[in-house]
Design a protein that fits this description.
Blueprint: H1 2-22, H2 28-35, H3 38-50, H4 56-75, H5 83-109, H6 111-126, H7 128-132, E1 143-144, E2 150-151
Antiparallel strand pairs: 1-2
């Protein structure tokens, strides 16, 4: 289902990954300013993917907020490297599209089903359920990640 892939790519994989990459060279407080653009990105996604038609006043206030937030975020960059800012803009765009696609999908699947299916698809996108988790030989012993914490396979395979 392509809608689930959009949700997973935007919300489960894209936003966290791009934000983490941006945070390697920008402060967390600076990155949160970009999150102020998320409602506008979600609305744009809702128009593109969900056929939503917000009122003109909504676009006026969203545009006004973006005119304030965008330049402020860019002016507080602290370095001449535009890469972290571009990564955050891409993260916000992907997240907004993922949120909007999730609302469209929720109409068909329901809320918790969409969230769970998106997380499972996100695991598949990152290949967590096969490559990163090593199932132990003893089924009663949980798999352990690099930090020694118990982990479970994302798709539930092997739990029966």
């Amino acid at each position: 289902m392509p809608s689930l892939a959009i949700v997973a790519a935007g919300v489960v994989v894209g936003f966290p990954m791009l934000t983490a990459l941006a945070l390697r060279s920008m402060s967390a407080s600076h990155s949160t300013v970009f999150v102020g653009l998320l409602p506008l990105a979600t609305s744009a996604g809702a128009v593109l993917r969900g056929g939503e038609r917000p009122a003109a006043w909504f676009w006026a206030f969203s545009g006004a907020g973006s005119i304030v937030v965008g330049p402020f975020a860019l002016s507080q960059a602290g370095s001449s490297d535009p890469a972290p800012n571009l990564l955050m803009v891409a993260a916000i765009g992907l997240c907004g599209l993922g949120y909007a696609e999730g609302t469209v999908l929720t109409r068909r699947l329901g809320g918790w089903q969409t969230i769970c299916a998106g997380v499972v698809d996100g695991c598949r996108l990152t290949n967590l359920d096969r490559a990163r988790l090593r199932r132990p030989a003893d089924p009663s012993s949980p798999a352990r990640n690099r930090l020694g914490r118990a982990t479970l396979p994302c798709d539930g395979a092997g739990l029966t």
